[in-house]
Amino acid sequence: MLGALALEYARRRPDSVSHVILVGAPPHGDMVALQGQGRAYFEAHASPERQQRLRENLGKLPPGASPARTVMAQTPMRFYDADYDAAPLFEGAIPKAEVLMHIMGTLLPGWAARAAARPLRAPTLVAHGRHDYVVPWTLWEDIAATLPATLRVFERSGHQPFVEEPEAFVAAVSTLLRDSQ
Hints:
Layout: H1 2-12, E1 20-23, H2 31-45, H3 48-59, H4 67-73, H5 75-78, H6 87-90, H7 97-107, H8 111-117, E2 124-129, E3 149-154, H9 161-164, H10 166-179
Parallel strand pairs: 1-2, 2-3
């Protein structure tokens, strides 16, 4: 969702943005559709073991579990390694629900129409992990070609390829910067 913020800023302030790097970002603002698309991709492409791990993790959540605990339980949907301990990545983070709600409630709805009205000019890297079942990379296949964008799919990554494949991610960013000069 935060990638939409980067795209919107690049559209509104094209003279102050040289490049855009999107990681695991949705290509549209319809969160209900996105959840359905992610679930369908997971059911079609995740291994039976990964699907079982997700069911087990979600089954262990207490009623009314916090969003943070729910995200941790979704590790099989978010990381190549279905047992990855993502807790250190969020340690010390202070969630700002009002910011998230602004992005989801104000920025994302209507995002596609605004994008069509003011096309993106900055060279863009759309980085996705093949094992990202939250925002499947396949959602960008046709869209990336309509932008000044390169879609890079990381084979051993989920939602955060910069964590799971840092060297390959740095190489992709370096290529974007070098080739768009």
